[in-house]
Design a protein that fits this description.
Layout lengths: L10 E9 L3 H8 L8 E8 L3 H5 L4 E12 H14 L8 E7 L25 E9 L3 H10 L6 E6 L8 E2 L2 E2 L3 E10 H15 L8 E7 L1 E3 L6
Helix pairs in contact: 4-5
């Protein structure tokens, strides 16, 4: 398969995290801006409340919507989602956009120019992805919170069952995994990553994977999610 002939740098990966039951509404709303389709991933958020944790009520059901769109459409969409779903209020949700280097399978005919709506936090955040053994996601969340992160989303994942694909970067991928998504301000990114690495020894073979990606536009990040 070959990449499209379009300029790869003109596309963004958009991540919208909402409460359970709102993801379909986000995708329907996106159609108004010429964006059709998206991927919904069930996940769980965290509530940093010791009473809720004691009562085992600290996990919050979330849905993650993944949408790939041309950059100008992406910025327009996130600005409108922020207003429509009130991400500027606490606990409503967050959305952010990241630049993509290569795109495969995007329909060229779906690309149209749109006016950019200014707004949102620009170039102030990084996203941290941490993949660890199932059950250790909560440890990542606790450590990142102590280091200054405001919240995180845990996604349950698993590797393929193929014998030929049992390892990647030295990590056994057949067992189920926790993938933790954390969005933090750039100035504390290194502190959060170092804290996670110190606690879980990520650099040890088989312990996990952690990578950081720059966020180019974000809404709702300053609120607990």
């Amino acid at each position: 398969m070959n990449p499209t002939d379009n300029n790869f740098s003109e596309f963004n990966l958009n991540v919208i995290i909402v409460k359970h039951g709102f993801a379909s509404a986000v995708i329907d709303f996106s159609k108004q801006y010429g964006i059709s389709g998206g991927t919904i991933i069930p996940a769980r958020g965290t509530a940093n409340n010791p009473v809720l944790k004691f009562l085992a009520l600290d996990e919050i059901h979330k849905e993650i919507v993944i949408i790939i769109a041309e950059r100008e459409k992406s910025y327009l969409l996130l600005a409108e989602i922020n207003k429509k779903f009130e991400f500027f209020k606490p606990n409503k949700g967050i959305c952010f956009s990241m630049l993509l280097d290569k795109i495969f399978g995007i329909n060229n005919s779906s690309i149209n120019n749109q006016t950019i709506f200014e707004g949102g936090d620009i170039d102030m955040f990084n996203s941290i992805f941490v993949i660890v053994d199932k059950g250790k996601g909560n440890i990542v969340v606790d450590v990142s919170s102590e280091a200054g992160a405001r919240g995180a989303t845990i996604i349950n994942a698993r590797g393929s069952g193929s014998k030929d694909d049992e390892k990647i970067f030295g990590i056994e991928i057949v067992p189920e995994k926790d993938m933790v998504l954390i969005v933090v301000r750039k100035e504390i990114t290194e502190k959060v990553c170092n804290a996670i690495n110190l606690k879980l020894d990520i650099e040890k073979p088989g312990a996990g994977i952690m990578f950081v990606h720059e966020v180019c536009r974000a809404y709702g990040i300053n609120k607990p999610v």
